[in-house]
């Protein structure tokens, strides 16, 4: 434990997995960069390289899927029929067929996407007024003068009613199009079928000048403009349509898709919700809504919406494909692999499926690398005593996947640890001076999404490096540690439970000789946590933890964190505030033990990426203030940053991470980690 609470970014504490450049949504703090995963452990003396997601070059943007089968509610004079799979009909009777495998517009991340391409069916589904329809009847022609006054009055009333009905003019959507408009619409549809969207738009624009109220041409123009990535013009066309037909769920959903594809996923979300309220049975609108949520960073909402679609139709391939992407962005590539297989079995978009499978293969590739780390921290044991704790050394790490189901991570390190007091260089200033050799291994079970589990073991052996110290190494010279965590994604809530045992150096007195010795001790922590993702911008989490130390000390803590994302685009900017209450059963001369302490921490995090340069970056500033019963107030400023990139098409990941802090007592801490690895 440190005297100056160290706000090292949580992305500095884990071994990185394979990463490909993608607009990944946040795992925490509503941002795609620094995040605390549900299984993050406390900061150790040798920080691991940053965790990086295994992601595709860009998320597939498939959001149109075959619609659920349902009957049309046609007017009585229209022939009733059951809608077949692959066809969608709006409330006005216009039917649209679907074909897959088409190359759609760029998604909000900037790359081409795979999309179900809607095309208006060639046959008009709304009947035109019949040529032999009855003409208007004059009001006085309804009958003759009757002998009875009541009969004459009744006859006149019925005649007036007949006259009003016969003279009624059907709405524009039900009137027959002019030959020129019908020919332009037919030609534009043919061009759209050939994926020549610019030609289709060029045909529709002059035709709409002659027939500006034609809904079918406006609708087709809005869609081909979106498919050809002319988003601003498409959005304006959709707004013109919705001003005339505000209750048209199909056009509302198309407008929402154009917003999402243009990078305005946050504006698209309320439009999708309105379209779903108007027509809750439209499954492809729900899939588009879920994808917009995921692009906006709301992975919890996206996962819940995809599961709702699958509850309604277990054979919806695009819903399985979307769920696969969300699972991968939640660091569960093995679950993504399973969902992608189901998507393929149920006819998901082939190009989007190929893209997701490529991202999964990259995430599951074996990887090995090496790195170097150096850090200096403060071990405060009283207001007048603050030791310098330093660590330096090298490490090796690697990962692989067994049977595409179980993730395996291994790590080996050779580190130098020493603790000294401030003052002139002298051997008497050294509390201890050790070398350590450590190995650790983790197993990850994430294929059973949304339930996730991770566990691992660690072993470290210590050797005395300098015998002229105040606390020489005792008879015990090794340490055994472990960690495990179970969590699940339940809608917008993520409950978790875990237990771990971490290393801590205990300075004590030998029971036999009575001399001071150093014992490789540890602290065993059990904790419960709950996270709530209110939206893509807001999240909150809380935890309760109990720690038992080998020197018979105990620690109890309760913590809560709330975060709000200010900027949704690159770079993302997030504000957060945390409050922690902690207490120990007794003070210790070996580590920092603020009794009945309350710590406030406010921070701002910036994260981003560059596709062209193939790198991602992040920076954070945090101010913390802590009060306790046995220490004077501590106010600390912490800065941290990271830069990571890949060479040779994501085959050689490289990373640099660092932090620096200073408090009101002029205590300074810092750390630097360099890492590199190779995938094959």
From TrEMBL:
Residues 68-88 have a biased composition (Basic residues). Residues 23-49, 89-111 have a biased composition (Low complexity). It comes from the Bacteria. Residues 1-112 are annotated as: Disordered. This is Tetratricopeptide repeat protein. It comes from Eiseniibacteriota bacterium.
